[in-house]
Queue: 4 jobs
Job 1
Amino acid sequence: MSVSAWNPNRQRRRSEFKTPPLRLPGQSMEKRISERQDTFMQDSLITVILIVIAGFEWLHWLMLIPPNPLPSTTLAVVAILYTWREKVPFVTRIKKLRFGQDGERVVGELLEPLREKGYRVFHDIPGPAFNIDHVIVGPAGIFAIETKAKTKPMSGSSKMFYDGHTIRLEDGRLLQKPLRQARGQAQWLANLLNDGRKATVTVRPVVVFPEWYVERTGPRSMQDVWVLNPKALGKFLDHEPQALSADAIDAVSHALTQHCRWPVIDGTEE
């Protein structure tokens, strides 16, 4: 059995979310494929290194060159320093990506009950250099949802304030990028859906922060972007007037489905 095989005594990674996401179809198979690919690449790299070492040894023997460990030692030290310098940001980046992935899955599961209210739910809508985490289409309209999984503070409450222009944390930090990102993605989606169509549709940008409490300090009518905990999205939608007919919902959903079936070059951002 390989060292990567499951060990019932090992400590499992604790999720940052109170309700961790459910497993996806084929997730175990995806993990096995990834592990086997990594193992193959590692074994291949070791084989190449051993061939190179053997080649140098044969070269020394054939040419009667005395051993000189200084060049190889220098290269080894440089390689160790380079690898160590790259390892820390690499590990940090992977942890951040996994945290964001868990956040998107948690939000995706919270959106599923909206189907019972007549909404169509789409995930990971590809754009030219980004992706929209979730899109819902239903009676209240079209909503482009950007998930922001943010680590909670070590002390104090996980609370933020939104006045329609700025997201502010309790420690005074301001978050502007999520609003710009959500607006840009919603506008792009509206342009995509309106391309070649007589009837124009609008898309509401939404930013959700799982596990965070969002306090609105300004009038809701002045907030072009919804910023909220994803669990509150259903209540927000219930208070919205009907914007799309059943035929319009079908048409928009068909357009989104067709778009998602087209292969795109991966250039997504966080």
Job 2
Amino acid sequence: MKILVIGGGGREHALVWKLRQSPRVTQIFCAPGNAGIAELATCVPLKISDHNALLDFAQNEKIDLTVVGPDDALAAGIVDRFEAAGLRIFGPRQSAARLESSKVYAKEFMLRHGIPTAFSRSFDDSSKARQFCEDAKYPLVVKADGLALGKGVIIAEDKATALSAITEIMDERRFGDAGCRVLIEEFLQGEECSIHALVDGRDYVLFPGAQDHKRIFDNDQGPNTGGMGTFSPPSRLLSPALQARIRTEVLDRFLAGLQADGIDYRGMLFPGLMVTADGPRVLEFNCRFGDPETQVLLPLLDGDLLDLLEATVDQRLHQTAPAWKTQAAVCVVMASAGYPGTYENGKPIHGCEKLHAGITVFHAGTQRREGVLLTAGGRVLGVTAIGDTLKDAQSAAYKAVDLISFEGAQFRRDIAAKGLAS
């Protein structure tokens, strides 16, 4: 089979890496790809937003299956375009992807179908949003309604921060049209957890859990990022009893809600959860593989990813039974200086050639110029290790990180520490 993967980050590198292991895959293309992906696939210099060019390429190359990585492509309806042309593609259609592209729409879906979530109010008028904040109880969370690269969520400890967040999002349009509306939520106390489930509209297949680290600095300090690292499984937090509640209260109700609302959802569902004293609460829905969660989940998959993706597209998930390694995985993200704000590209990267077996470096923002590997993004590399225990995986990942360098490299030193806490 000939595969096209759309995207150029760490998640897409992990998808290409795993798909390359399938005996049924003969050729992989990636648009636009990156320097790491180029070692496994043919990179095609097409923009993710240029659906016409991507469709033409898929038709000309007779691509058997296209796999969509980024949320913005799904939100813009690339699946609808490909399906209308008779091409097979993995990912939810535009109407279903609204569950990620609009936090207000997702919140209404959760409330309608009894999926546990935080109390919230939505506003399309910044003055009314500010008025609500005058008498609100703090802390609270201010969210841009639309897609904002994982950065449109601001935790407001006090009124001044909340008012500033509303100004930035709605008036100054820091996140563009994503800030046309805001969702203001109660702040939930607890610990975050990520789950992934393939959904074909009739059934779902649950992946192992993972725990992301959103803040830029150790001990969850500083602004939110797209993710500074992750680990799997979060056994200390995600007990069998909690997993059962997530199935019953989140996934079963999600599936029933799709059917009640007539939503044809085929793709990955990645809900971000807060585990509170009262049980799981859904923070948001994501309609694609997580980044960097994919970088720890796929190394633990003991089987063919292509089989699972095709079963999702064909609504055959009930026939699958994926196997998972009994090991643990840790991914540490190395980012450019200044991220998640402004940063410079073009810094030479050294040390990747020194790494030993058992370490996989997923490229997120890289390019190769005249044979030299250079930084080309905010998040640059995802250094992933697997081990028999979480401690083993963490130790191996950080040993590898210490061998890699580029000017201004920043990374957290506490990835997976939550999973090791007693």
Job 3
Amino acid sequence: MHFSDIFKKSFLEGFASTEITTVTVLSAIAVASAIALYIFFVYRVVTRKTFYSKNFNISLAGITVITAALILTMQSSVVISLGMVGALSIVRFRTAIKDPMDLMFLFWSISVGIICGAGLAQVAVILSIVVTVGIFILDRLPVARAPMILVVNASDLDAEEAVTNAVKPFAGHYRVKSRNMTESSLDLVLELRTAQGSSLVRAVMALEGVTSVSLLSHDGEVTF
């Protein structure tokens, strides 16, 4: 017997086929489906204030169940497992992820499918609980308030100093983000934080030469 024969024999013995019963398949798929439904509702709740894609959410649930079935199939034979690895390696996914949270949910779904397919349902349940608690705790942590944007349109080309002087009593810190000047008008964009938005707009609007004032708030990212 050659060394190559010994190596092949030991390799195949190390990855011996596992008999998968119908009860095992149904149990794994049932647990994966239950957790997939749980992920579906958690994703819906977490993304209530952002862009929500129902199709993506359905895909998360489907990926969990499909991954569990794949892992079960790969356990039945080493030949099938190697064939699936080769087949899946040529697949290319080009769907853009719009939110980093979507990437986390995608990885969560795949992980649960792998764990359920491996027969470790208790690990999948504990993982899902820990991830959910972590998401809601971190989501409620206080963060810095996003700055507001003050847009001022003036017919006086020298109105910038008057505008900044009017802003100072209402905002401890401000920054001029943009200046746009034409032959007959001046447009200013200021970034600031204030709790007296209405009074600030009235004070700036009362300035001579100011034609319009807009104060905008947003729920975007906060930079430090």
Job 4
Amino acid sequence: MRTAAATIGTGESRSSLRERLTRRRLALTVLMLLIILLLVAIGAVAVGSEHVGIGQIAGLVSSWITGRAADIQPDHRTIITDIRLPRVLTAIMVGGSLSVAGAGYQALLRNPLGDPYILGVSTGAAVGAILATIFGQSLLVSRPIAAFIGALVTIAIVYLLGRGRGASTDRLILAGVITNAFLSSVVIFLLTALAGSQLPSAFSWLMGDLSGEFRLMPIAFTLMMAGMAVIFACARSLNLLMTGEDDALALGVDVGRVKLVVYVAASLITGAAVAISGVIGFVGLIIPHAIRLVGGSDNRLVIPASALAGAAFLVLADTAGRTVVAPQELHVGVITALIGAPAFVYLLMRRM
């Protein structure tokens, strides 16, 4: 009896030690990525066609905190507060959201190719957002909600197409690619219904644009944070699901409920991201996979690390788009595609 009790006590101690080590590792990783994100964000605000000194940025932030007047030129104040800072904040939210959505899809599908863009969810959200723009007076939902509905309908269609005997995650990915191709045609068709003055801005938004929809940030921010919190709350269950659905069921995971919750949450944050930034591909493919390569596959670490790393990645990509061919500008979706398409081919070849 004593031996059994000692064994149980030792097992509990080891489990507690592993838990503490995981929390310590999580805290260190999050702290390091937060510092990186802060440095990247400051650099993005400073860099551009008109350089703004870091001292001026620090002085402006200090004035917001203390309430004292900042010694900064009016045009630099305008550049920071009205142009660059909103854009950086949008990139942080969108990059983090798409990365967490990708981490959720990859864990559910047990496939590194799971990504909101590849599965067609981003394009489905774009369809919903465009419908809300065209029929804005008659629709009872705002653009972020309409985009969420479009994303949710799309993932439901992909799931139904990928089901069947012998269904595999590869079949779901293929169903997503086909659905994405079809919805891209629908998007082009819907764009023809827009008025001539709206068409250029719509095409710009469709290629990924972080400069024009900051007014939607409050509702989009709420939806993104709610979705990311739900996915993180399911991290333990996702860890068990990655070993296989039968094993997860045997260990007490309600597989059907977890899959439904994560699919809905991932679609929610994808829809909110698309509503304010357009279709930005491959962020949810590159970042979670890179985090797993570096830090392992524990979703308790992967999900928050993906949020921070994805935010920093998209800020860097947008900064590159603003500066590489200045005074012209490359859409951020072009930058992410140039990086993500080769990564997709590499992962596909590895899987084959």
